[in-house]
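User: Can you model how cytidine-5'-monophosphate sits in this protein?
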Amino acid sequence: MNEYSPGILKARERILVALDTPDLARAAAISEDLKGLVGGMKIGKEFFTANGPDGVRAAVSGQPLFLDLKFHDIPNTVAGAIRSACHLHPMIVNVHAAGGRAMMQAAAEAAREASEDLEIERPLVIAVTLLTSLDQSDLDEVGIKGPVQDRVVALARLAQDCGLDGVVCSAREIAALRDACGPAFKLVVPGIRPAWSETGDQKRVMTPAQAVASGADYLVIGRPISAAADPAAAAKRVIAELEEG
Ligand code: C5P
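Assistant: Here's the modeled complex, given as structure tokens:
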């Protein structure tokens, strides 16, 4: 079992805060404010492309890291990318399930090998199934047929079969995926909005407590915390709501 999958997570450990900015100083300030308060920071392509691995180290300052770079390439290249990512000691890394069986197996194997070589805890390797920004007509256009939820479940099962630890999924997919993939499969869920926060551009949202009650393991929360006047106070409010259930 991974250090990061101790079974029952504490409320605060479930919260991964998305640092969606190219601005290193801003990301570092938010992260410093939240240190020890939440489960970790999520860093994606915007920040990474602007600031690189050294920027990531500076921004997260030792906190658990979800490195959200969604690798999708030939197996050899993805394996290399995962090995390089392991130098940042991430808690979670991810790939696109559409990269297929050999790519996902190579990713899982690379994470195992690199973490042994570096003597670090193995990161969870999770998959993105279908991007939630795609609707049925977008999927038809790229040749992906059938009901979205069926494709999501099929891709999650494939990821599990390839040795991956979980998937990123929308709140509305939690129940079907928990059913299909069992209790140990990690479900990492963005699109989370406390009742008191702005919905913004997120269309299908759930509150933190609803998402955990539905079976989410980790909650990816961006603007409700990062754009709050007082990010630490917003994080504490979310934690208190989770603890109330
Ligand atoms: O600010 P907000 O809470 O909407 O941020 C959510 C984070 O989760 C962003 O980093 C966004 O890119 C990511 N995400 C998402 N919806 C998905 C997948 C990822 O909002 N389906």
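A couple of observations from the model: The beta strands are 15-18, 40-44, 65-71, 92-96, 124-128, 166-168, 186-189, 218-221. Residues 18, 20, 44, 132, 168, 170, 190-191, 200, 202, 220-223 surround cytidine-5'-monophosphate (CB under 6 Å).
User: Helpful, thanks.
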